[in-house]
Amino acid sequence: MADIDGTWDCIVKSPLGDQEMTLTVTTEGDRFTGSGGGQMGAMEIEGDVSGNTITWKMSISSPMPMTLDCEATADGDTLTGSVGAGAFGSFPLSGTRAGNFRGLNWGRAVRRRTGRPFHWGGAWASTSLRLNGIWYQAPYPNSRSG
């Protein structure tokens, strides 16, 4: 199993806006199989593996028919790469390994680097999660603070 094996939550920065995609990769030797799916559909993919880098082609029909040349490299729980769209140029691809909470947008969540729960405005946070010694908490006021 290569470090790139697994499921990745990705974003491609395209002229049409951020395109979210879930990429699943299973390597075997110097080849891989998997799937890529997002707002414009899903498809099975296959391609080449070189270390922690994969390359593949995807044929799309929307917004117009074209073949995309894709490359992605894993470094731990981070994925970086590009999607080439022919005459339209190349667009950056980034992602995090699915289940990696460091890549999530926690909105108003509080990140605190201590071993203690966080006290928020007179009320203990009612939703909290501790990962690798770091508390992630979404503050909710108690009935006294409204």
Write a brief caption for the model.
The chain has 146 residues and is mainly β. It has strands at residues 6-14, 17-28, 31-38, 41-50, 53-60, 66-75, 78-84, 90-97, 110-112, 119-120, 123-124, 127-131, 134-138.
Can you tag this structure with a few keywords?
146 residues, 61% strand, disordered C terminus, mainly beta
Please provide a written account of the structure.
- The chain is mainly β.
- The chain is 0% helix and 61% strand.
- The protein is built from no helices and 13 strands.
- The protein has strands at residues 6-14, 17-28, 31-38, 41-50, 53-60, 66-75, 78-84, 90-97, 110-112, 119-120, 123-124, 127-131, 134-138.
- The strands form 3 sheets. The chain has an 8-stranded antiparallel barrel. A 3-stranded antiparallel sheet has the order 9-13-12, with no helix packed on it. The protein has a two-stranded antiparallel sheet with strand order 10-11.
- A hairpin with a 2-residue loop joins β3 (31-38) and β4.
- The chain is globular, with a radius of gyration of 20 Å.
- Mean pLDDT is 77; it is low at 102-126 and 139-146.
